[in-house]
Amino acid sequence: METNYSGALRCIMAVLPAMRNRRSGRIVNVSSVAGRFAAAPQAAYAASKWALEAMSECLAQEVKAFNIRVAIVEPGVIATAIFGKDKPLVLNSPYPHTRRLRALFAASLKKPVSPYVVGDLIRQIAETESWQLRYPVGPDAVQFLEMRASFSDEEWVTRGAQSDQEWAVRVKREIGLDVKI
User: pTM of the full predicted structure?
Assistant: First the structure.
């Protein structure tokens, strides 16, 4: 929360007065597809990104009258150093979600997407006059968001209780990834 939400908020608070005085500006916040749907075991990460999304959406409404545009970049799985920072799995955990998420990331990273696609998009957003709020980025971002939107909240929660085998079959069917658990 400190980095993903509070850090962004402090930066915005530092630049916003000058933007208001100038009556122009662009604020680009980097969120994640996890900022629009929660998937175990990413509660803390998703919460920080949901907070950033909500703050950005409210800010966009507040500052439009000052000609300040706000954009939210929502990457899917992007090949960054974060994937080398995994903690060891807890053996015999009654919760399968961490190993499933790691399997999903491993399958996605077989065709790595460079973080430069995110940087290029940020540059394009900064250079455009568009008032578009959200920008999913990466080959899987829209796919993940559409998949989540296709289920009720109750269906989404129930899916977390599937067996590993059922989960792997579903991932293959819905997003085309062969996950190895």
Answer: 0.92
